[in-house]
Design a protein that fits this description.
The protein has 314 residues and is an alpha/beta fold. Helix content is 29%, strand content 16%. It has ten helices and twelve strands. The strands form two sheets. Strands 8-7-6-9-10-11-12 form a seven-stranded parallel β-sheet, with helices on both faces. Strands 2-1-3-4-5 form a five-stranded parallel β-sheet, with helices on one face. It folds into two domains: 4-98 and 281-299, NAD(P)-binding Rossmann-like Domain (Rossmann fold, 3-Layer(aba) Sandwich); 102-272, Rossmann fold.
């Protein structure tokens, strides 16, 4: 039996090899593994039919004539769609849904950081200062989620359990549990916290600009756990400094690591997180589970899961 040629282009392959074996697919594929810093050989590029990787350099995919499927290891695929040589005939799937355990918890943690005075208490402790403060309740506050996809819906469920009102936007108009679907303008105007979970597309570039920031309450906080390019950086700095919004917690940035001279670092009430939202100690296991399911679909000529719509950009 001819085995399908598969290339796992990532540093840690154990979880993926285990998932292939557990799915009973080992005898149907011939697997090559390659660290990210290395480049596939001419022989590997010539024979690869399915590829799993974080990203690839421009010009490489056009040298893989048998390639029919790419599994991206991230939920965002803007780096793949930007490739000039991404063949139309190659199916591209993403790792959407593999952050559903870690990211909602980290987002809820950000809400608690804003509402509860633990960080200030830690700073006061360094000076042995006893300062009585009153924690702000989350119960009764409004959380606005721009982008009520899988992650957003999980956050909505958790926030609702805390007694928060959840509103948000969604590309499809169908109703979902725990959240009310409104317009972007309504969400910005009514929310005490605005959470960005929009995908990376040309339409969402600089989405939170001065005009939209001006629609927020002066007491509201902006949380960005989506994509760095959703925010126009200097408009946000200006809005926070002018008191047009209360502050921001940012986990994603246009350039990572964030350059040391970027004004986010020193702007009071802008909190910089080092992209902690999505990573999980067992994330390879989550991605491997999706990959093995997709590999079976690919081998059986069935529809792939989390297929990227190139027109929509995600």
């Amino acid at each position: 039996m001819n085995r399908t040629q598969l290339l796992l282009w990532t540093d840690s392959t154990a979880a993926y090899l285990d998932a292939i074996k557990a799915a009973g697919l080992s005898d149907r594929v011939a697997v090559d593994t390659l660290p990210r810093k290395e480049k596939p050989s001419a022989e590997q590029m010539a024979r690869t039919e399915a590829l799993m990787a974080y990203d690839v350099p421009p010009g490489l995919l056009s040298t893989m004539p048998r390639l029919r499927w790419v599994q991206a290891m991230t939920a965002g695929v803007e780096q793949w769609l930007a490739l000039p040589d991404l063949p139309e005939t190659v199916a591209l799937t993403c790792a959407r849904g593999t952050h559903e355990e870690s990211m909602p918890e980290n987002i809820i943690g950000a809400l608690f950081y804003v509402a509860k005075p633990y960080a200030q208490a830690v700073e006061n402790q360094k000076q042995a200062k006893w300062v009585r403060t009153v924690a702000q309740p989350l119960t009764g506050k409004t959380l606005g989620i721009l982008g009520l996809g899988a992650i957003g819906q999980r956050v909505a469920q958790m926030a609702s359990a805390l007694g928060m009102r959840v509103i948000g936007t969604r590309r499809r108009a169908d109703k979902i549990p725990n959240a009310e679907i409104l317009s972007t303008e309504q969400v910005l105007a009514q929310s005490d916290f605005v959470l960005l979970l929009l995908p990376a597309t040309p339409e969402t570039d600089n989405f939170m600009n001065a005009e939209r920031l001006a629609l927020m309450k002066p007491t509201a906080w902006l949380l960005n756990f989506g994509r760095g390019h959703l925010v126009r950086d200097y408009d946000l700095v200006g809005a926070v400094k002018a008191g047009k919004i209360a502050g921001a917690i940012l986990d994603v940035f246009r350039q990572e690591p964030l350059p040391a001279d970027h004004p986010f670092w020193k702007t009071e009430r802008i909190i910089v997180l080092p992209h902690i939202g999505g990573p999980h100690p067992q994330r390879d296991r989550f991605v491997a589970r999706l990959f093995a399911e997709n590999l079976r679909c690919f081998l059986d000529n069935k529809p792939l899961k989390e297929l990227v719509d190139r027109k929509l950009g995600y």
